[in-house]
Amino acid sequence: MWEYTDKVKEHFLNPRNAGELEDANAVGEVGSMACGDALKLTLKVDDAGKIEDAKFQTFGCASAIASASALTELLKGKSLKEAEKITNQEIADYLGGLPKEKMHCSVLGRQALEAALADYKGEPQKEQEGEIVCECFGVTDIEIEKAIRENNLSSVEEVTNYTKAGGGCENCHDTIRELIAKVREEERPVTRPKLSNIRKIRMIEETLERDIRPSLQHDGGDIELVDVIGNRVLVATRGACAVCKASELTLTNFVETKLREMVWPELVVEEVKE
Amino acid sequence: MKTIYMDNNATTQVAPEVLEAMLPFLRDQYGNPSSAYTFGGQVAKKIRHAREQVADLLGASSEEITFTSCGSESDNTAIMSALHTGKDKMHIVTSRVEHPAVKVLCGHLAKEGYRITEIPVDREGRLNMDRYKESLTPDTALVSLMWANNETGVIFPVEEAARMARDRDILFHTDAVQAVGKIPIDLQNSTIDMLSISGHKLHAPKGVGVLYIRKGTKFTPFLIGGHQERGRRGGTENTASIVAMGKACELAAAHMEEENTRVKKMRDKLEKELLARVPKSRVNGAVEERLPNTSNISFEFIEGEAILLLMDEFGICASSGSACTSGSLQPSHVLRAMGIPFTMAHGSIRFSLSIYNTEKEIDFVVDKMPPIIEKLRGFSPFWKPAGQACASDAS
Fold it and tell me: Is A57 close to B329, i.e. CB distance below 8 A?
């Protein structure tokens, strides 16, 4: 069973603004039944460019329904300019967070919003932008790149969680890896926003769990996060690593490189002996 | 809130008689059955008795019964033993709808160079017997086919399939985890070489399984260690659970008729009422060739996880083949193998009953389900209240 926040549960059980606006002047439809979730957003925008009312129809799981409900709540009373800026992360945050495998539900909300705003401006419905990368779920390279950029994604698994791409036959995993590398390359010159300490620690933990510990454990070793002080990451080695002469090398060459790549370029890994 | 448990293909309640039988072995009778003194020997005697109880349910003899830790261990043991004893044979025949214990293991074996043939099923989930027959080659080390499917309850003709394998000197294993206790099984009159059972699917606790190995079948152990289970499975016996497994098998034999009459009647009523009260719903899987306790129903245009969570509000427990419940992004491999359209697969709910369900519970569920489906369809973009659903997207 998924661990949903109380807010997700509450919005799922009592969805706000479910239905279809008869007098909508902005309509966005995204997703499909084949993909497992779909969302139709109808908005009523007044002459001053303010969103007077918003309603949704959803085919999807509890978090898809809650995300759509949250989106309509976020939209009501906002100007079009403000609405344009709503990100998928804001939808997730409104609900107190979503399980990472369910982030695509918030992305679906953001996509429906984009489609509705384009519809309002009278922009032609773009049938498909870019090239399909994931055949199973019909996800394009442009959508994938956007998700990578906006959510700072760094692995195929994360891309799947956010866009569903790669969640089926897995044939496109290499292409997704190339897209991640491409976006990373673009981003390099741009200065990164400052990381909050909490976010930094969380990212370090996630990277350790996902990318580092499994490889070490594969060789009979392990590592444990002891503390993070500024950019110093204090770790203790376990198992085979604790008695391995080359463990220092592993720490700098593998652990530190990985953490710098995934979290923050100035991190320094230090071993604490107990 | 009372729990209405209709997910017995996932796990079952430990029968009160089973709990009673196993408790002494968690309390005073903690002796090691391998010990020389009476305090241990009396436990060994109980294990012998449990072995006979299991054998009786299967129409086997007790030396053909090996206790394991779960159904997955039994499946792994059977498949790996067949490959070890099959010398240079590099081919395995299985089906597209197997439990992960078989399916995922075969996927790993494929990476090690084994050739795997997955026999397809038809729209009703029935095995394609022509394709099965064609797939058997001199290089085939093993056939592993489930007896009954966990998601749809569809029963495969494993006895017939086993005869065809025997004619070609190919070992035959069946994952009978869902079948044992629900339909009669008589191994002495079959040519099945190995068969897996899981305790917790038939009212014994989790953590105990059985592998039946026909007398004379070449065998290599999976778990290597002590002399326990006559060298077929190392490790000190899980005495309490083994005793429980024996008792559960004895009870299953006693309840077999009830399972196929009262439970079947409740299942049929549940199914009939839901199909009648909920438009655009259908049963997945061959209606006749099916376990008496299982009903897999698709409710079109809505998604299974959302249905389950609304059912949960009433304490009703069931499963879904939707993508969102599985943690993957695609609906169940079983429904996909059957060619069930996505529009149907995402909204599939599996009810699986046991002798502990009551008519009253069926009435309750029949009463609660239609409004749940209606609520979700109420804000589904694909559902048109007039009844003529828009299926423009039903690819």
Answer: no
